[in-house]
Every structure is written in C-alpha cells, then in structure tokens.
Design goal:
The complex is a heterodimer. Chain A is an alpha/beta fold. Chain A contains 7 helices and 19 strands. Chain A has helices at 9-12, 19-35, 50-57, 122-130, 364-371, 377-393, 399-414, and strands at 82-87, 90-95, 104-108, 135-139, 149-155, 162-172, 177-186, 192-202, 207-214, 220-230, 235-240, 247-256, 262-271, 276-285, 291-300, 305-314, 322-331, 337-346, 352-360. Chain B is globular, with a radius of gyration of 18 Å. Classes of the chains: A alpha/beta, B alpha/beta. Chain A binds chain B through residues 363-366, 368-377, 379, 383-384, 386-391, 394, and chain B through 48-51, 70-72, 74-76, 80-81, 83, 86-92, 97, 100-101, 104-105, 108, 140, 157, 161.
Chain lengths: 416, 245
Amino acid sequence: MNNFIFNSKEINKIKTKSQKERDFRIKNLNFFNKNGFPNKRQEDWKFSDLREIIYKNFKKLNTKIKNSKIKKIDFIKEFDHNYIIIVNGELHSSNFKFEDKNKIELKIFQNKDFSEENEINPLICLNHALSNSGYSFEIKENYKFKKTVIIYNFFSEDLKDNILNSRNKIKVGKNSEVHTIDFIVNESKYKFLNNVYENLVLDSNAIYKNICIQKDKSLGYFHKFSKNKLLSKSKYSTFIFPSGFKFNKLDLEFNLEGKDSECNLESASFLNKNDHQEIKTKMNHLAPNCKSYQRVKNVLSSDGKGVYQGKIYVKDIAQKTDAYQISKAMILSDNSEFDSKPELEIYADDVKCSHGSTSGNVDQEAIHYLMTRGLDKKESTKLLINGFLNEVIEMIKSNSVKNFVQTKLKKQIHGY
Amino acid sequence: MLEIKDLTASINNRDILKGLNITIKPGELHAIMGPNGSGKSTLANVLSGKDGYKISGLMKYEGNDLKKMSIDERAQKGIFLAFQYPTEIPGVNTSNFLRTSLNKVKKAKGEKEIDSLSFLRILKNRSSELGIDEKILSRQLNVGFSGGEKKKNEILQMKILEPNFIILDETDSGLDIDALKIVANGVNSYRDKKKSFLVITHYQRLLDYIKPDFVHVLSDGKIVKSGCMELAQELEREGYNKVRS
C-alpha cells in the first residue's frame, strides 16, 4: 500500500545536524519502506498483526500535525507532584517545584548516537528515520526526589490520521531515586498512531519506579519500544495499567548489566470491546546475582485481545540469577482472546528461573459464594474482576497513588 | 418459615434428592445428619439457589416460592448459608466486602446504608466475640485463612447480616474443640424465637454444643427418620446403617 510509504522529503523537513545523521535516517526509512508495517509472519508480531490493523483502520498516515494546542491541563489533585508536560510527543513545559533544580536536567531530546545495531523492527526504524521530538530527563548523582514526577502525555484534539514519532531518554544517576507516573491524556476523537522509542539508564544504586496509566479510553494506536539498562545494585520497577486503547504494544527490553540489579514489572489491564494490548518483555540477565519478576494480569471482555510475550535470557556468567514470570488471564467472553508466549533461554547453571501462564473463566463457585451474601451476578463478577486486578495494585506502596489507580481502574470496569 | 414438600434435585442426570419433606417453624433448630453422598450438601446448595440443579417439588420460604427467587434475592430476604468450604476470593478485602454485603441486605430491607465508621464498630464487636484476629479482616476474603478462621468468618458474616433462616453446612468439619465451642457459642447467642436453623452435620459432636429441637436422618435423598436429640445419640452409637434399616 503506497499510502504507507514515507517519502525521503519527510527527512528534509527535519533539521539534521550532520550527514551521518541524515544517512542514518535515510537507511532506516528505506528499511521501513521496503518492509512496511510488521505483520503476523514475523515472530515478534505473530499475535498482533499491525499491518492488518493499520490497513483496516487508516487510509493514510500524515506526519504533519495541524495544531498541537491542548484545551486545558487538568492536573491530578490527589497528591502533590512535579510534572513534565508532553504534547504530541514534544516537550511542552515542566515544573520541579519540590526539588533541587541543580540536580535535574530536562531538555529536548537530540540524538547523537547513530550507531544503533541493525534494527529489524520496522517501527523502530521508522522512529529512527522520522523522530524529531521527545525529551531527555537526567537526574544527577546522589539525589532522591521528594515527590513523584507525573509525565502528562497529551495528545491534542487536532490529531487525525497522524503518525507521531518521538524518542525519550531517562538517566538516573548513581545513588539517585525517582518515581514517575506516565499519564496519558487524549483529547483527539480520531485515530492516530503514536510510535515512541525510549532509552533508560539506571546507574549503580539508582532506583526508578514508574506507573503507566491513562485518563480515559482512546482511539489512539500506541507502540512503544523501551530499552532499559540497569547497572549494579540498581532497582527498576514498573506498574502498567493502560487499557481501553485500540492498539497498544509495549516492547520492553531490560539489560541487567550490573551485578545485584533488580527489575520488577507488574501489569493489570481490563480489555474490553475493540481493545488490543500486547506486552512483550525481554529480560536479559547479563551479570551475576540479579533478580527479575514479571506478572501480567488481564481481564478480557467482549472481543478484547491481550497478549504477553515474555522472554528471560540468562547469560553464562549470570550465575545466581533469580527470575520469575507469570501471566494470568480472566476470560469473560467467548469472543475475547489471550495469547501468551513464555520463553526461557539459560546458559548459566546455578540459577532459579521459572514461568507460568494460566487463563480461565470467572470462578462460578466464587460467584455463588458472593451471591449468597446478597450481591447480584453482575456485582459479583465486577468484584471478582476488581479483585483479580487489585492484587497488582495492592503492591503500590503509596496509598494516595494506590487510591488514584484504583479509582481509574474502577472507572474502566464500570462499563462492564 | 420453611416448607419443603417432595423436593427432588438432580445434577448431570443424576438424582440426588428424591422426595424430601421438611417443615421448619420460626425459632426451631433442625439438624440433618446423614452418611457421605446422602444429599446433605445438595440440600444446602438447592436452598441457597445454586445453579446447575434440576428441581421439582415445593419449596416455600415465608410463604414465597423459593424456586422463583435468585441466589442474591434469597440472601437479601434473610436466607444465609454458612459454607462447608468457604470460597477464597483473591483481591477482595474482607472488611470492605462485608460492608458491601451488609448494605445490599439493608437496601433490600428498605433500611439506610451503614457508614464505614458505624460498620467498623459492629465488625470489631462481632469479631471479638468470635475470637477473630482483626488482622484477618483487612486480608483478602478467605485467602490463606486456616480452616478454623474460615468457619469463624462464616459465623461472623451470619452475625453481621442478621438473617432469619440459617443453613450451617458441616460447620464443625475442620474445627478443633476450642474453635468448635466458639462457633457453637456464636450460633447459640444468635438463636431466638424468630430465627430458624438447619444444621447439617456428620457427627453428634456439634449437637452437644448446639442443641437441636429436631434431628433428621437423610439417606439416599430422603429423610428416613426424624426424632429428637436421642436420635443423634443413637446414630453415634449404632451408625447410619442400623438406624436406616
């Protein structure tokens, strides 16, 4: 489909700094134009045929955005926080009133590294070719944030059949700690595709905690590739709650490069009519004594589709690795689908690695029990859905953040 | 309060209850004893309204046709089943659930919903009467509870929801003697002229603590013998086979 081929003139619109950069962008654009959007014949995309999804839902994809104005910013009032505002992938403004500003560097992202290995994911190539916005957020050494940073990701009303390519970089310095919430607010009532490339580095002893959630349901199509590097004794934790997207694929690669580093990923989603969400993780244990834990829980209703592809790789030198992965799905409808592909690739001999995957219907015994206490069938089912997902939310330590997430989740389930 | 005539129940084409008759008046406590597979738990399930059974016969509760009432409607009208194996409900906080449940029952009765502070006061009192550790009330419903904790939690729910007709399905199973006494005290303190009980058990032991007005022997889906406490003692002494014959 010619509509989804991007002309090299698109690159002319970007202010490139060097011939090297231009060559890098052209090379990646050519790769994308040759291969197109990924389809189910590619192993990584076997459960999410993006080509089919794009062809079915878009006639064309424009890079030009009419207007990036947002109507109004509704700040989260439930708890004090710092913020970064991103509009259509571009850094808009920020406020770090609770922090020592000398310890923080936030600027528009500029790529200086054009040496990325030959990428086979066409969406990453497209991002390499066309990305021209995003942020770079760096926390210097020995600094613990006093308050959470909410990254408001706004998508403006004027977005319609657009493709957005942005890239972000987050670096947490030695002995530093930051907690962030990625909060997606979509004002557009039309379809668009958001394609993000993210790079995160945790220096030794650094702690990074993240929550990812959205305000409302959306007609947006989202793809994010995130490459995370964990140095010694660093700790990474993320809670992923988005649901209600037409398409959402989070492709997360973690490289535990330093000894004693830890990575935790938890996800809870309620996927309803026309929702399609895939989480793909690649947990690379590259150093000894590291821990990783992934738990993905999905409730699927109507024709909702959920996918979890999780791979744990343990390098020969990564002895004493402790890795665990579990996915659980509660299936409420005959038309919904959950696909799971766990993989282990282990080259060290003194490791503890396991994985599991379960899917099933609502427990009818539990429904009976709850109904004998006066709740009707719908209320009982909702309570079970909520309970199923709540197991993940309960792991959030801050009560105010936990309540905030619970309210959002209840809203998602409300329509069921 | 409860009138059952010629009740039959089958599941997956297997007949379990085969013409059961029993009438329970307000204030009475009836014990049903019977060997394994005689239909005791099926009777409890059928009375609670559990799906999957094919039923015929008459089942009247306070003059209403029980068969026409859904499970939750029965609960709201005052029927309570204390489960033999209380189901574990992951992710659902025990205390929050009990309040939701109580408010559903109150709403059905046309009463005002209870606020969280008043509820916590009631919950605290009732749980201390049953020797329930308050910590378990903030845990997930029945998840990781010991056998005794689960059974006590059932009696706690009974005392909070204040039903009129209570079915205790093998509440004594899995309880040590101390827990059995506590549970029995809980039941006894709840007995009055308006409340009726159907106590299902294998053993006379429970009936030493909860004195029944009537004892029935259930065998092969029918009540084959009825009597008083002496019948339970006879069963304990002679076994089911002899009493049945």
